[in-house]
Amino acid sequence: MSSESSKKRKPKVIRSDGAPSEGKRNRSDTEQEGKYYSEEAEVDLRDPGRDYELYKYTCQELQRLMAEIQDLKSRGGKDVAVEIEDRRIQSCVHFMTLKKLNRLAHIRLKKGRDQTHEAKQKVDAYHLQLQNLLYEVMHLQKEITKCLEFKSKHEEIDLVSLEEFYKEAPPDISKAEVTMGDPHQQTLARLDWELEQRKRLAEKYRECLSNKEKILKEIEVKKEYLSSLQPRLNSIMQASLPVQEYLFMPFDQAHKQYETARHLPPPLYVLFVQATAYGQACDKTLSVAIEGSVDEAKALFKPPEDSQDDESDSDAEEEQTTKRRRPTLGVQLDDKRKEMLKRHPLSVMLDLKCKDDSVLHLTFYYLMNLNIMTVKAKVTTAAELITPISAGDLLSPDSVLSCLYPGDHGKKTPNPANQYQFDKVGILTLRDYVLDLGHPYLWVQKLGGLHFPKEQPQHTVIADHSLSASHMETTMKLLKTRVQSRLALHKQFASLEHGIVPVTSDCQYLFPAKVVSRLVKWVTIAHEDYMELHFTKDIVEAGLAEDTNLYYMALVERGTAKLQAAVVLNPGYSSIPPIFQLCLNWKGEKTNSNDDNIRAMESEVNVCYKELCGPRPSHQLLTNQLQRLCVLLDVYLETESHDDSVEGPKEFPQEKMCLRLFRGPSRMKPFKYNHPQGFFSHR
Amino acid sequence: MERAVPHAVPLGQIEVFQALQRLHMTIFSQSVSPCGKFLAAGNNYGQIAVFSLSAALSSEAKEESKKPVVTFQAHDGPVYCMVSTDRHLLSAGDGEVKAWLWAEILKKGCKELWRRQPPYRTSLEVPEINALLLVPKENSLILAGGDCQLHTMDLETGTFTRALRGHTDYIHCLALRERSPEVLSGGEDGTVRLWDLRSAQEVQTIEVYKHEECSRPHNGRWIGCLATDSDWMVCGGGPALTLWHLRSSTPTTVFPMRAPQKHVTFYQDLVLTAAGNSCRVDVFTNLGYRAFSLSF
């Protein structure tokens, strides 16, 4: 349809002011004044359907007219032009109708659009309202939930339970009648009660605080009182000193010692404590004392500034006096060595009293840089001792404590870390300094609680009380036995040097009444000399001849027979027996390598020594062994079978009573003495 | 100036005592087990030690293989002689003979199977038994020692059947002359006596020291060792080691040895002999010619 196809907008035809804008169609409004032509109003009146019909009719007419014009034009003729003109005018009219219809259509369209637009706007407005309301609803809902979720602070307070509340609260607060029914009131009441209680407690707290203040003040006062007491007590103690001495209770002395003990280095302290404890508990003959300068000990720990001041002063002085002289390298090294081997100024002295009034004085030192302890020993006897020549080493401070425990010779430092320190200052071994510093025996370290395990060298070795305590008793006993056995040997040596074997009466039963062989000589020999002897090779090879042992040579004679006995005395005498090796010079030289009987004699003295120990503490072992040796020589010489080819009587007639002279495949002589029957038999 | 043998372990009382014991130990007797793998040795302290020969002689022998497999105290006195039967080890020392089972010996705490003491005349001192001799044909054991008699003991019943008297001083050694059967005994009195086992009589006495070729008075007369080959006999001790022809009782060869011999044995055609005081075992052919010496 052509009206639909032409959608171009025509400007609005009629306005309310009524100015017509169309040029072509000029329909003037003449009908009424004040009334204007509104095509829009007309649109409402006309029926669109009819207009449509009209349009179709007009189009048809136009088509007819055009067709007629066409016909006429094609036919030609004279009146054609008028008819054509007529039809043209008709068609113009139809055209105008069409135009009007077009306009109407447009107006209708526009109206329709406007109506739609309006309606849409209304709908939009409602929509907006709806949105607003929904939003408000949501908001309100949120608020409601917030309100519902609201927890009042009062719920966080732990209120007492209901039963308690009703029990405890006074009725004017609890208001049971009201609150039972109404939870809100109930909660309020409970809160009230809570508040009451809190107030009361706050009161109490304040009261307690003030009490506390008061008491603190009182304490202060009393403390002052007590501190003022101390100087008064001191003066009382001073006054009591003469009383203490009178009653032999030297508490003060002990106290002073403990005071000094506080400045001892840890190992010496351990030794001091353990030795005092042992002395008090088990052994009344042990006394402990501390020697040395306490001030020097304190000076060791002085802060560096003081000492630096001193140093700078002394340096200045030194510079002035010896300007040119610089210490040589050797002197420097020497100084370093001295520094390394420095002893702590305090030392602990132990005095062990033995039964015969002889005393062993032990002084223990602590070498600070090397962390080891050393000991110096001295034996004093009640009576003056005349030292026999051979007994020189027995009681010498150097060797009297050697090998108290097997192998503990005290010539090497027990602390493996010291080796590195020694290397720095060029000390080869501690042996050279041992005379001056004392011996670092292992038992000394143990008494001081120092333990140096061989496998793991430790950086710091701490003094351990339990180690010291566990060794104290054994060591003290060993020390006492050592001193006593040495003193016994001392006396015996004096007698031996005069050729008399001192056999005590309780050991006489071990020997026959008559012993003809005599001890002629008893001297010390050096370790090297012992090793050189030809008949001692077995002992040396068995490792029994060490440089810590003492060596002696005894000579027993009877007639032309001379028996040499080389004796190894172990420092652990008398628990470790002396070892004899024999060489007989009589009709040739007989030793254990060429005469089985000499071997048997050695066996009698070395292996069967337990019979010869005598009563405890078996100090008689050596003398009994020597006496037995004389007896054995007697038996040997007397039982020697007479050689028929040689003329003359036997040099030694048999006086000993023997059951048999020879026994066994080795044809041994009867060396075993049987008491009390008094005859000799074989083992 | 270091010592040759430094000791790492300090010697306490026990170690010193053990070292001294070892220095003064004498091994008097030994016997090989019937299986040949073990050697038992008896010493003067009365202990018997059993060594494993197979371990000690093997190519992988270590120091421990040369130590005894087991040691036990067998007798109170020294163990002077030992001999092995096919199942037992017989040891004798101070006066009694004890038997041990070879099968049990290797276990610790072995107890003796039986012990017997021959009837002695004297009660003052218990005489030692210096020699044991097995007579396989009669299944009996001959003991000889300090009481100057030879005792025969039946091994099955354990009773002492005969006591052969004749020696004037104690007997050192015994030897069996298989063909006759006769027993030879050598003693401290310097004689070698032959005894017939069936008649229990002394058949012959040879006074070795009276023969000038072999006697050495400065050593004494005692006969320490005997070995016989049925026709021949070798004996020595105080007198020199001599080879005797038994039928004629004449010394034929004197072996030139200075030291008194303690052990001698015939081996095929050779004579093996050892003295107690040297480290040598001398081997002679019986023509008096010293072939060579084995030395420790």
From TrEMBL, chain A:
Subcellular location: Nucleus
Biased composition (Basic and acidic residues): 22-42
Keyword set includes Metal-binding: no
Transmembrane segments: none
UniProt keywords, alphabetically: Nucleus
Origin superkingdom: Eukaryota
Keyword Nucleus: yes
CC annotations in GO: chromosome, telomeric region; nucleoplasm; THO complex part of transcription export complex
Ranges annotated as biased composition (Acidic residues): 306-319
Subcellular location, principal: nucleus
BP GO annotations: monocyte differentiation; mRNA export from nucleus
Pfam families the UniProt entry points to: FmiP_Thoc5
GO MF, one annotated term: mRNA binding
Stored InterPro entries: THO_Thoc5
Renumbered residue ranges of the record's region Disordered: 1-42, 301-336
Protein name in UniProt: THO complex subunit 5
Gene name of the record: THOC5
UniProtKB/TrEMBL annotation, chain B:
Gene label: THOC6
PROSITE patterns, per database record: WD_REPEATS_1, WD_REPEATS_2, WD_REPEATS_REGION
GO terms, biological process: mRNA export from nucleus
Species whose genome carries this gene: Panthera leo
Protein name as it appears in the record: THO complex subunit 6
InterPro entries: THOC6, WD40/YVTN_repeat-like_dom_sf, WD40_repeat_CS, WD40_repeat_dom_sf, WD40_rpt
Superkingdom assignment: Eukaryota
Family: Belongs to the WD repeat THOC6 family.
Each WD repeat, start to end: 164-205
UniProtKB keywords: Repeat, WD repeat
Listed GO CC annotations: THO complex; transcription export complex
SUPFAM superfamilies: WD40 repeat-like (SSF50978)
